[in-house]
Amino acid sequence: MSEADRLELLDHAFKFLKTWVAPSGRAPVYFGVVVHKRSFPGRSAVETAYDQLLARFDSYLSRLHRGGDSHRSLVIADDSSYEKLLQQILPKWKEGDGSIKKLHSLVEVPLFVNSEASRLVQAVDFVSWSIYNYYERGHVTYFSQVHDRFDAQDGVQHGLTHLVKGYHKCACAACESRRTYVIGEAPAPWSDIERPLIA
């Protein structure tokens, strides 16, 4: 595939991710977690990210439930080297253990699929890639297309989480919303001076 064709494909994919609405009229709601590893020494970044991701999704469903719109949840993940870890920490999610609350909406063990066989998982890969490029490289071209679809309430972007100590010093979109209770229309590119705290 040529570079021009690849870029055209990305443009079409992110236009879809930005605008698609289900036949029911419900738009998708995205969630993502970025972990600043040095803020959590001795802790697994993968486990920490999954804990936060699922807890925030569960809180989102609880919020819908309080409004009379009840749902249950499934965890569907790409086949990966983390499958064994996720199976090991499943009891913590189902029962709660002090570091994370019990996930009330979870109805089944995590399901693992090959992303090449699932368009849904491929869509998640695109969103994850845009988050990675925003935090790791400062690129906003694709991240800005999905930025307003992360779960948010009262000006705080709960669905996009940057786990970092001293978040008040970080200029990323997620930390900015936590400080100001305002979600910007589009995140600005990182400059050489303002880099996100990610390493």
Give a verbal description of the structure:
This protein is mainly α and 199 residues long. The protein has one domain (30-180). Helix content is 42%, strand content 7%. It is built from six helices and four strands. The protein has helices spanning 3-19, 45-66, 83-95, 119-137, 143-146, 173-180; strands at residues 32-35, 76-78, 111-113, 160-163. The strands form two sheets. A two-stranded parallel ribbon has the order 1-4. The protein is globular. 20% of the residues are buried. The model has no long low-confidence stretch (mean pLDDT 87).
Tell me roughly what share of residues is in helical segments.
40-55%
The helix tally amounts to 6
Shape: globular
Strand tally, please?
A: 4
| Order of SSEs | HEHEHEHHEH
Main sheet properties: 2 strands, parallel
Structural class call reads mainly alpha
Detail the poorly predicted runs.
none
Mean pLDDT: 87
Strands side by side in the biggest sheet:
1-4
Overall number of domains: 1
User: Per DSSP, what share of the residues sits in E-state strands of 2 or more residues?
Assistant: 5-15%
Distance between the termini: 32 Å
Radius of gyration: 17 Å
Keywords, please?
199 residues; mainly alpha; two-stranded parallel ribbon; 4 strands
List the helices and strands and how they pair.
Blueprint: H1 3-19, E1 32-35, H2 45-66, E2 76-78, H3 83-95, E3 111-113, H4 119-137, H5 143-146, E4 160-163, H6 173-180
Parallel strand pairs: 1-4, 2-3
